[in-house]
Amino acid sequence: xxxxxxxxxxEILPNILNLTSSDEIAISEFDGxxxxxxxxxxxxxxxxxxxxxxxxxxxxxxxQHLYTFAGKLRDVNISKGGFPFPxxxxxxxxxxxxxxxxxxxxxxxxxxxxxxxRSIAIVHGELLFIHPFRxxxxxxxxxxxxxMSRKQGFKALSFDRINEENFADYVLAIxxxxxxxxxxxxxxxxxxFPG
Length: 195
Known about the structure:
two-stranded antiparallel ribbon; 195 residues
């Protein structure tokens, strides 16, 4: 589902490649995220720090071939299905708080798989609730979750298990993160975590 935008903005975003069809844009975005995940997985070490700067890097690497806003916080207010995401003018402060309160407290090594699942769930849910980018928030959050898992020696999560049947639960889990209720997202991440 596309974003609800103020005014009469088009769904076809202006892009560097001058693509005009949503299918062409979807393919180009898919290619960019795929290449970025491969590159970032190859560069991943035990010293890789997950922070705001790294999240911006994930987004930039994924979409810089297509959008001038790649790796930059959005400057427009957006909502989806009537749910408004945090206002654009507060994103810098919101991301700084996310960094200070959550990302800086992530350990380099986890003592248990359950602790890792909890961290991935909190980071994933908070990032999706904040929705810092104009486009590509979900895919950036999924890549980040996969990188967090791979950093600890696990495989990627099975995000392909998100379907029509459980999508509403996934959205509700994201919305619960706004209230710092992470239990639904933890359960969701646990259900798609590699065995």
